[in-house]
Design goal:
Blueprint: E1 8-11, E2 18-20, E3 32-33, E4 36-37, E5 39-44, E6 46-49, E7 56-59, E8 71-72, E9 75-76, E10 78-79
Antiparallel strand pairs: 1-2, 1-5, 3-4, 6-7, 6-10, 8-9
């Protein structure tokens, strides 16, 4: 199994539960739900950061980029460009 990528989304094929990788670590991430391995989805979470305080957030629901414009420290947050899988 390959290392998980930041923003990777896994879904349970049985109940539909989802989990997202927020930060990569050295271990192997192999989530199990309903006694079954979770499936890796094609889409990934989008990350945004504050240019003032460096706070981060992850948007996991698929939406048009223009529909979501988070603000922190009274400034628009900046979308992080995802690295290729």
């Amino acid at each position: 199994m390959s290392a998980s990528l930041r923003g990777e989304i896994r879904r349970c094929a049985f109940c539909g539960a989802e989990v997202t990788v927020l930060a990569r670590r050295c271990g192997v991430f192999a989530p199990v739900c309903c006694d079954r391995p979770m499936l890796t989805l094609e889409r990934r979470a989008e990350f945004w950061f504050c240019p003032v305080c460096s706070s981060e957030l992850a948007a996991v629901a698929p939406r048009p980029v223009s529909a979501f414009q988070p603000v922190c420290c009274d400034r628009p947050m900046v979308r992080e460009i995802a690295s290729a899988p």
